[in-house]
Description:
This protein is an alpha/beta fold. Helices cover 31% and strands 16% of the residues. Strands 4-3-2-5-17 form a five-stranded parallel beta sheet, with helices on both faces. A five-stranded parallel beta sheet has the order 7-15-8-9-10. Helix 3 crosses helix 17 and helix 9 (150-160) packs parallel to helix 16.
Amino acid sequence: MAIKKKKKKKKLGSLRGGGSSGGSSVESSPYRPRHVEKLPPCINNCPSGINIRGFVTQIGLAAKMEIPFEEAYKRSWEIYTDRSPLPACVGRVCPHPCESECNRKYKEAPVGINNIERFIGDVALEKGYKLKKLTDETHDEKVAVVGSGPAGLSCAYHLARRGYKVTIFEAFPKTGGMLRYGIPAYRLPRNIIDAEVERLTRDLDIEIKTNTKIGADIPYDDIKKQFNASFVGIGAHQGYLLRIEGEDASNVFTGTGFLNAVNSGEKAEIGDKVIVIGGGDTAIDAARVSKRLGAEAIILYRRTREEMPAIEEEIEGAIEEGIDIQYLAAPIEIYKDGDRATGMKCLRMELGEPDDSGRRRPVPIEGSEFDVDCTAIIAAISQEPDFTGMENLREGRDWIKVDDHMKTKEDNTYAGGDAIELALVTTAIGHGRKAAEMIDHQLRGTTPEPEKELPLVTQEQMILGYYEKKDKTQHDVLPVEKRFEGDGTAEINQTLTEEQARDEATRCMSCGLCFDCGTCWSYCQDSAITKPLTPMGEYKFKMELCNGCKKCAEQCPCGYIEMYDPASGATIPLEEIKIGR
């Protein structure tokens, strides 16, 4: 009788250890489960390194955590502002590279991270949330920040919250850099910029001196003498011209020059038909602003729509507003009457082999010349920093070079943002944070600890079928006919409502981190998993009861549990465990 019982028990164990996990008996399995937090692709693809999973799940899991939504919003904002002080601004202008890598896209559509980011930014301004310092300690060292664009504001923020006295020097009359002078108000309202900057000066006592150009009003050498360290975030406000005959006409502008003038409140004499050259965000913005000033706008771009670097949503907006985008077209000469441009000779192009950027090189088609009449021309092909008075920082065509710590060749001088590379606002914010951390280490004489590297969690390591299918929440958009009313600065994209933001946040799958679904506990047949007594608590393994059946790892939807051999350290790849799931 005892022998039969023993055989029956062994047979049952063998069945538990078999099935989709490979058929080996439970008794012989050396593997045991462990929790391993993983890096979700959204965070991995965020240039600012913002804890996206953290700030989104604070709202998405608020009901499960049994906290009021108002508290969830504040926690979400605090998680976000640990890395960036400008959620309301960035939430309006970022092309959200985080969403392009979201694992949810393999189910139906990425989570609307950017919309949630904007929502918490607006809630923070409405509720008056205060920025927090990391320490009550203050330091004697002073730091100068040159430029109040996103890189400079970020650097100043992260230094001030570490106890440093920071002074920002801004060449323009108002703060914001390219946020204010390069982005139209219909994309980023000026009161939003003002509110987020004012919060920095109010909560962290950051001093800002506007109308002060380093190199002109104050020699850069004086800054180096008066401050213990400096950060240079001067942006790239100087536009390139086309280098073709006739571009010295008085009505030929650079894209950055034109947008700066309009955003500064100056009257732009562009007439009723504007040609814009380029395919980036500046070109799209220049054309749409020209339309709001009453002109017909034509964009000429030498490649196709697929190669256009502008934000897709902004391209769509331009087309909706009647902007004529002519692809595979390039200028070769500007016609003039006196000192004014009256038209442009252009060529049709075709795409050849890829260039250094990876895009196919445009090649002129012989005999394809055509003319376009105009009353103004805007060259929005690229831009660069103005190094006047700071020429020592420039290293040829590479502009300012920095090392891995954002340090320049000059002692105690760091840099970031467009002055080192033309990139996204969120990239500049990341530069500013990283530089601030290194300035702190330099001034304190400490060595930075390496950041903890987490393994990336991919959709193959998850069980997408566990999650309920749910369409992405779409934000409201101002109708085209309303966009040109008044001064044309009415904001086009609208912030999500509370209900919309909550609903969208629940679409986050918490890739690589437990969200208290209880699946591992329910599938464990040996009571080897202890369920937490409080919501979102820690599930614990009782290794003395575990037989290595792999069910917890196999069924964990977010990829948080993996199986490893305690003796050898070997791990079974999650994608191998979850084949067919």
